[in-house]
Structures
1.
Amino acid sequence: MSSAQFEIQLIASLVAIACAIPGTFLVLRKMAMISDAISHSILPGLVVGFFITQDLNSPLLILLAALTGVITVILVERIQKTGLVKEDTAIGLVFPALFSIGVIMIAKNANDIHLDVDAVLLGELAFAPFDRLTVGGTDIGPKSLWIIGIILLVTIGLLIAFFKELKLSTFDAGLSASLGFSPVIIHYGLMTMASITTVGAFDAVGAILVVTLMIAPAACAYLLTTDLKKMLGLAVFFGIFGAISGYWVAHWLDASIAGSIATMLGVVFFLVYLFAPSKGLIAVMYREKRQRIEVLLLTFLLHLKNHSEVEERHVNHLNEHINWQKVKSKTVLDLALKNNMILIDNKIVSLTEKGDEFTSQAIDYIITNEDAQIEDMKKHFFLFRG
Amino acid sequence: MNLQEYFSLVFSDYTLRTITLGTAILGAVTGMLGSFAVLRKQSLLGDAISHAALPGIALAFLITGAKDTNTLLIGALVSGLIGTFWIRGIVTKTHLKSDTALGLILSLFFGFGMLLLTFIQKQPNANQAGLDKYLFGQAATLVESDVWLMAIITGICLLVMLLFWKEFKLLLFDPDYTKTLGFNTKFIDVLITSFIVLAIVLGLQTVGVVLMSAMLLAPAAAARQWTNSLGKMVFLASIFGAFSGVFGTAISASQDNLSTGPVIVIVASVFVVFSFVFSPGRGLLFRQIRFIKNRRDLEFQKTLAFMYHIAETHEDISHPHTIKILNNFQGFTRKTLQKLVDKNYVTLDGTMWSLTEEGFETAANLYNQNIKKHE
């Protein structure tokens, strides 16, 4: 591994960490699409900044572009406040307009600006190690490494300093306001940080893939944990994993590094989406199926409890009365038998003592509207789950 | 070429005519279907779908090796639909919210698309150039067959929309009621969504994946301001969309170095801003005017009521009082006084005012809605 390769992976990992931190909060605050809007609408800011500074890596340009990002957020909120359109429409209206302005500005000044729209959208990490920063004649590393490193340090510093406030205002804006932490300041602080990160990262990974690095690791982490600190840690881990594995995929396919990172994150998300314990697709579908059968079982037991007459509890009658399909009724009967809730004697089905107790308790909970308790009760009664 | 030349050439010049017609049809169909997207609060779905279509274009090229527009658009359609239904799967089956799902699918699919595009570029195949026109779109590459395709699909959309108008409308405003009436809501839902995806895919060649969402949203958001009726909104949105297409093409053709897509988006945004400000019912301007007018009415009524309470204490209601005592009262201004005089509720005599019979009568019944109704 050459030093250029190492530097690329280092930059990619730092970008991933710097994006994962604000990304986690954006996902939790249901503002993920704002990052998409910001990443597009920084374009006019970049162009204007480039006119002034003539240098894509100057801090002034980053600030100007980040300012455009914050303006986008304010504009979206203003439009939303008029009540003329919903929030999502407001986002969808603002960023394409700003992006178009940026594209047109570039097209009209193509001779003066060495700025390619493709480059803004896609970035090129492979060239990052060639643009070096020299201080007093000595080479101290690639420029983008320094930029993203500084942004990351600021992000981590702010995260540690305001962790409590961020957590509080994310989960309970009302409480946070009543305790004296202004949710507005925290909101705009977060937006500013997200904008600066987006701008700082765009020339490495491109504007759209900044969105991937913000949302995908956080979304994966959110499916695996509900603890904020763990979620941040997992998001950072997934970000770094995506960055490094993505680099090697790109190396192998000879394709865009940013695209490969996004693809690797996509693969990771797909796996987490399917297999996450308790929140993944398979776990959810399994749980839904189990609940469906258990509800059927409860219905069946209630029916038995309501009818003490022998003829009402005859197998043939039950088949006719409840009118379930064969497989369905067999599953329910098996479950009930396994749990010792019913007895089948001479084709007459009757509740056992345990089944009777279970049913009475379930009715109590249903009547008093404490449905949540039924889940606990099931744990107590069931030897086998549905 | 300036704008006048453009309009004189638009009917005779083949390229200009094709492009103008293409963008106009595109604007109309996206406006039409965009209305549903906006009202269903799926505004950003368009953004996600258009980005999600990119890997489909690249894969279609990789598999068939052909650069034929129709093949690529079918690829885009398939991958757009996969993206849409994955978003739906994420939102319904996990606790991730719709914004996360949208942003996730958008960026993941786009990233994968970019991987494929860069991979294709490295292939020893002379045919690969020009795929990246789908990023920002190139209206100039439209040919007559593309316009025909657009026209046919627009026709199908229109037909299906008219056929299922009642169901679409019902589902839009009251999904639960639709279900209880026995309509297959899932089918209708999938139908609308599929047509939205179709419209987006249709526009990729012209406007590109990045800006396509604005084509869907802007005409509909503008039309929403002018009417509360779905039929009128869909119609207006189509008109706005078509005009954005025509004007955008005209402006970009009359200048050098202007790609059509961004210009169309800017024109559509101008329509939106204009509608936000000037629409008579909901617009900001008229809302402000109504607000001021209401405040004036209130001040006028308050002044009258104040005078009434003074006059009430005297036997002769027209007993003159000095204007100075009105100064204690906040609602009073010279303007409201003048208005009262104009309406003949009050007569002025130097620095004294007195309530007329008519003014007294009105003031007494000011807050009495019942009597007013009888009049």
Note: Residues 9 and 244 of chain A are 6 Å apart (CA to CA).
2.
Amino acid sequence: MTDQDQGPAAQSIPALLALNVERYGNRPAYREKEFGIWQVWTWAEAATEIRAMAMGFLSLGVERGDHIAIIGRNRPAHYWAMVAAQMCGAVPVPLYQDAVAEEMAYVLDHCGARFVVCGDQEQVDKVVEVEDRIHHIQHVMYTDKRGMRKYDHSRMNHLADIVAEGKAGHFRYEGELDKRIAELTTDSTCVMLYTSGTTGKPKGVVLSNRNIIETARASVAFDHLGCDEDVLAYLPMAWVGDFIFSIGQAMVAGFCVNCPESPATMMTDLREIGPTYFFAPPRIFETMLTNVMIRMEDAGDLKHGMFKHFMEFAKTTGETYGMPRYRVKRSKPTLRRRWRWAWRYAMGIGFSVETMVENAVRLAIVRLRHPMEHRKHFHARGPLLNLYPQPLRDYFDYRTGEVTIFSPLKNTLGLSRVRVAYTAGEAIGPEIFEFYRSMGINLKQLYGQTEASVFITQQPDGQVRADTVGVPSPGVEVKIGENGEVFYRSPGTFVEYFKNPESTASTKDAEGWVATGDAGFFEPGTGHLRIIDRAKDVGKMADGRLFAPKYVENKLKFYPSILEAVVFGGGRDRCTAFINIDLTAVGNWAERNNIAYASYQELAGHPQVYQMIREHIDAVNRSVAQDPMLSGCQIHRFLILHKELDADDGEMTRTRKVRRNVIAEKYADLIAALYDGRSSIYTETEVTYEDGRKGAIKATLRIEDAIVAPEARIHKEAAE
Amino acid sequence: MKDTGAGITTAEGGSVGPVLMELRNITLRFGGVVAIKDISFDIREGEIRAIIGPNGAGKSSMLNVISGFYVPTEGEVWFRGEKRGPMKPYQVARLGIARTFQNIALFDGMSVLDNIMTGRLTLMHSGLLSQAMWWGKAAAEEDEHREKVEKIIDFLEIQNIRKTPVGRLPYGLKKRVELARALAAEPKILLLDEPMAGMNVEEKEDMCRFILDVNDEFGTTTVLIEHDMGVVMDLSDRVVVMDYGRKIGDGPPDEVRNNQDVIDAYLGVAHA
């Protein structure tokens, strides 16, 4: 039902909007929770609002080719502002809302925005702060008017007032607006997104309507998305992923975009909406899992036992019995199907009753034998009578788990309706991946880039694994360069970097191949792509062995107690690491183990925490040693940092990727200490608070040795 | 400049209206202890009036006099042009005076939403029976009040704890919930007893912002007691300084800051 639903080739986002009004006029297009209630806008209503906003923009004098910066959290009004800007022939430029004024100044200056749409007072303040340096800003609009009364309103307006102005003047602006919409072609610019700037200044990636629409079409068809999907828009609007999901795919497939009430209520809203199509970076899935595990630790014995039993069981059976068979026909269930369901449920209930009764009997017998420690001797098993063949038994067992554990858990997490979930941005831990998949959540990985309009490779249903990023997306060609770097060419390939032809030329060659900067290889046999690391981060150690820090860091980060890890060793004879502990997980662990601490710093320096982290590192070393290519990356010495790595201090990008060079420079003293054999070091670190003020943290950090697994080296010597 | 008639403008550009409450020669004694000694000052509509002073200066007693909880031994309280006599607590609430407490006084077992709803008690008109039966007026009324409460929740950015029992909240948030409950009563005068005590810098800044926004958005007259001088100087339009039950200073923050008596009271002075 999806393919024919995509309609004729619309050339631009505004054209798609008009098409959606025709196709799905009365279906919900946007929802936002306001004052505790979900407010709904249908496609028809949204289109009216967007047109009015566009006319309001015209009344302010928005010209073709203008840039309109949009800074704020995910709200329908901000998405509308982007589409309204496109209608006027202008280019929307969404910005990261947690950027400090300095970073914002660069982007605003670079794109030459004449108009800025701000979410709230905080964002307006930042714009006002940089306004004396950037003279081209003509008008500022804001969506939330609290605290805005005392501002100078000669060049500032509430966005709703602009919309009202557009409505009032619709006779004057309608003709001009229709003319401008008609001028839009597949080649006109759809959006400009700034890269997070892992290295150097952010670059403005220009994406055309063709890029966005064709990519969205291909991916919608790939995952059979329809107009009845619900997505939760909570990721930064400045990120290409959010643009593709909440505007590109939403417009193409005609599904509903739900905006949370505030960033803090995201988990509650997720639960209330129950998205069917969900996207999250690994970090979100990690946090969810950590929370589940922490709460399970506090649960009663019965619940804990059942959780453990069924999660263990689902690891092997989840892929077979758990995956949602989505895209069921939307026709009413026939009598036969109803019978089948009834039969299955009856059999399932019979099976679980049988199991439970037998286990109760078993427990009673064990209790008689071992009155004091029956828990130790009791093991729950399947039914003795064994009336069912093994696959049917597994099926029933899984269904029992679904009824008792998986469904309630998915419901609590807000993932019960998920048909397709994606994770990308970084590698996800195999345990985390397995956890969600075994519960019956169709979590898949994709590999993408801003420059590719997200999709480069993705995993088709039924071929999902934790260690690959899938096969090339439809319409995308991928090749591996000589140095192992991944190149791609696709309809989604960006037009250019704004005002930066040199970078454009160095990234995209004449034939349209784009270098990703990541090193990877195609797995023989399956054709799946595996990413090792950033191509420039993959280095050589002093003795010529391969050094892939990200590979090791990811393995470390899969432990819930490790939030971040930074591995050093390029050009040196051995590897060392900085570790950041996860305060939630380690704090809970400390609570359960009666470890008192007063601060993050104290907890990080606690001997027992060191002990735990060292065990993790030893385990990682053993696993790294398995891989003969990368066995040089074992960690010899490590320390636990006294502060969390933070984007405000420039140590991470806004998308929370580690800035290796900055860290190497800032903590040069610590790195030196890691290599000169000292057992502790005193250090002072400058930190930036959220309001921009600076302070210093002083600490004495201990440095410990980890156990290096010997196998691989012996193996290698033997091989030579 | 601020003492001339109605509708004057403060330095920050906020408008301050006519006198809302006037305290004339207030003295408060508890047996032999004189808590407040002959103090007079006024509170104007729409201003943020701070009362500061060292420990034991009589600030909280003063706030209790304003709220009508204590009846002054001598002196008069004039509120909106009328002299005020002894009152029952519900009368105070109906007059439009709401307050927060130095040590939080919320219902721990109830959710944030319910706690804030209690603030609207005096504004509800349906009878006990109707409310118990959930019939007719009561149901419609609740919707209306819930809407107001949701606006306040949105305003104070506590949407994420709407349904959390107050007992589970950290201190800073409890303070914010208390402010929300006081605001829900749509008060003429909002009394804040040390709204920022025990908070960290970030929470203090948030609270400051909320107090300013409340004053700005709802035009609520605010009287606050606070120890943090930085906060007081930033927030308030006018400051009363007390020491040992006496008033030793009154005026805009800058004026008070340079007052020698105030400096002595805070820094201590050698009593010869």
Note: Chain B touches chain A at residues 12-14, 146-147, 150-151, 153-155, 157, 159-160, 162, 202, 205, 209, 212-213, 216-217 (CB under 8 Å).
